[in-house]
Structures are given as structure tokens and as C-alpha cells.
Amino acid sequence: MDLLRFATAGSVDDGKSTMIGRLLYDTKALFVDQLESVERTSRERGDDYTDLALLTDGLRAEREQGITIDVAYRYFATPRRKFIIADTPGHIQYTRNMVTGASSANLAVVLVDARKGIVEQSRRHAFLVSLLRVPHLVLAVNKMDLVDWSEQVYEQIADEFTNFAAKLDIADLTIIPISALHGDNIVTRSERMPWYEGPSLLHHLEHVHIASDRNLVDVRFPVQYVIRPQSHRYVDYRGYTGQIAGGVLKPGDEVMVLPSGFTTRIASISTADGPVDEAFPPMSVTVRLEDEIDVSRGDMICRQHNQPTVAQEIDAMVCWMTDRPLIPGAKFGLKHTTRSVRGLVKELQYRLDVNTLHRNESADRLGLNEIGRVRLRTTAPLLADEYRRNRTTGGFILVDETTNSTVGAGMITDAS
CA-CA distance, 17 to 187, in Å (whole number)? Predict the structure, then answer.
């Protein structure tokens, strides 16, 4: 069954958690005790209705403030598709959490309050969705019940957002009017908005086409682990495991191993369920090669005439995720696919204002939740693609080596 990962985003109190709670409730993806717990908590707080947002706001601070702080992941399925939801926070100080939740998403749902329209945080999250190359974007105009189900209000918001999205790199945009509190246009079409002729949110999530979003042209297989079982059953077995990041692999295909540059052919491909005739993203597989080649973690299997860039200097957009600022000359650990190296920040080219898209070329540092373009030099070559071509081989994280915490997320724009 197909799997869709989607993230929610938007300003504070736009109803992201309520929308997810409604999706889970109306698709009967809740256990009885979960629903009873939410009903009990709602009564204890004095609410006159069951607050479905409590299904995702699990931290005590979130429930006390009525906001989302952490990224909450929820799972559910329909007969047509499986879903993983990342409920991301709306506050500006938690922008890094939103980037984390959306980085692996196939689709993003940006909510806006129909009473307030497009606000600064709506534009910020739409820009981040574009920067992270999330292929599909849904603008959910929520709280339509509070504007008397007005078509005029919906059209005004839709036009304003469409004009803003034209400045961004958004390939697929869908706009849906909803009421998360009452369930209108969440799972079934609303009778209170007969002027809207599009699909409900769940119908769109079930039918949006995501298979072609994956890069099936450039073969990229970062080796994560080498399997060498010491047993009589598997004599001289050597397999290379990992998750395919791009392209299609088949037994008999001629491939090249980087960085060594040796060529060979694929002997077999298998998964946990046994041998397969072909493998494609995002399958996790074990690949065996016909020849004995020195291959280890961090190496990459690709095509001889379609190789990633082998580079020690890269330009990248970086989202900074810690209080200590990023400054030129700083050194970090850098993790790219399955390869770990050390990196030096050679230059901060500009800091980007995500509200106006203005580039501040005089900036000398990046602070918490800020985004900018930097030039990095690494101690060992990276086997990389531009992020717009492959989100897996074009993305990396920066790690503070003293605390081992992730301090930045990067998207490669140029490698040399």
C-alpha cells in the first residue's frame, strides 16, 4: 500500500492540531481509550466540546498553553493509502521544528484562519515548504464556520495566496475551504459550502499522485552497512545494505562505486522479504556485486555515465537551529547520506528574510531559526547532487561535535 508523508504548518491557533484530530476521529483511527482520555481532559478544562487538538498536543506545556511546541507524529490508514502526519508548531521561535517535520514530507498542508487571511507566518511556512522542495502544497482555509461559509472570503484568500505562491517554486497547489472543528470538507464534502466544487481534504490526500515525485533517473545508492555473515550457510557472502536515494536498480545492471571509481555489475538485490527483480526509492535493500570490490559505509553505487558531483566545496542554504550563532570560520561535523565528515564555514554569502525574500549580503552571522546561504569546505569529498534534483543526496545536517546535537540543516545549491 502506498505511503504518504505530510506535514501541517501555519500560524498559531489556525487549527492544525484540531484538523489532524478530526482526520483521525472521522476515519475511525482512534482507540476507545484515546477518545475517552481526550473527552475527560476537555471536561476537566471546562471546554463545552471535545477538543480533538489534544490528540496531538501531548506535552504538558502544549496542553496548558493550547499550542503545539514539539513535532507530533501520528499514523493512520484508509483502504487506499497509509499516512504519516507531522504536526508542526506555528510559533516563529519553533521554525526549526517546522523544518524538521517538513523535510521528509511528500505534501504540506498550510492552514490559514479565514477571519485573519494570509499572515506573516503563512508566508514564512509557504516559503519554507518551497525551500524544502515539498512537491505538493495544500492551502486549507480553516474556520469557514466563523465567516458564515462565505465564498467571497475564500476567493479573496485564495487569490492573495496564489499571487504570493507565484514567486515561489511550488509545482502543485490545491486550495480547500474547511472547518476542522465541525468536520466540513475534512473527510466528506460539506453541504454548507455548495459553491466549492473541489475534493475534501482526505480525498485529495488519498489521490494525490506522488510516484513521479521520486527521482527515478539518477541511480544513487549510499551504502549504509556491509553484511558479512560468518556461517556455513552463507559462504563468502558480501552484501551492501542501504536505502535507495534515486533511480532504478536491477540485477545485471552495470554500476560504478564511488569514490574508488571501480565498475562492476549487480549480482542480486534482496529485501527482508527475499530477492526482487528491481529496486527503487525509497526501498531499503541489500545489493550484491559480481566482483570483489572494496566498498564500505559512506560509499555510493551509481551509473558510470550518471555520477553525483564529487566535491569538497559546496554552497548551501542552511536553516540554523541553535542559540549559538553560525559565523564564518566555525567548524562542525557534517552528515551527508551515510557519510560523515568535518566541515568549515568559509563564507556567509547572505541571510534571507523569509518574509520579504530580501537577501542581506552584509550579514555576518545566522541566529536561531534564521536561513542563509553559506559556502562550506569539507575534510573529505561529498558525493552530492543539488537539492532541487535529489532531496536525499542534496541534503545534510551540521552537528556540534562537543555536544553531538544537530545545529543546522542544509540544502546544497551548488557543489564543486
Answer: 15
Helix axes 151-165, 120-131, angle to 10 degrees: 50
Phi then psi dihedrals of residue 262, to 5 deg:
-75, 145
Model pLDDT for residues 326-351, shown as the tens digit of each residue: 999 999 999 999 999 999 999 999 99
User: Distance between CA atoms of 414 and 411, rounded to whole angstroms?
Assistant: 9
Cis-peptide into 222, omega within 30 deg: no
**C-alpha to C-alpha distance for 365 and 167, rounded to whole angstroms:** 26
One-letter amino acid of 45: R
Query: How wide is the angle at C-alpha 372 spanned by C-alphas 357 and 321, nearest 5°?
Result: 115
Residue ranges and CATH numbers for the domains of the chain are 3-213 (3.40.50.300), 221-302 (2.40.30.10), 309-415 (2.40.30.10)
Mean pLDDT of the chain: 87
CA distance 188 to 193: 12
88 contacts 128 by C-beta, under 8 angstroms: no
- pTM here is 0.84
What is the pLDDT at residue 181? 84
Measured from the Cβ of residue 294, the count of other Cβ atoms closer than 10 Å reads 8
For strands 225-227 and 239-243, give the pairing: antiparallel
What's the pLDDT band for 64 if we cut at 50, 70, 90? very low
Nearest C-alpha neighbor of 293 from the set 270, 339, 262, 249: 262
Helix (H) or strand (E) holding 7: strand 3-10
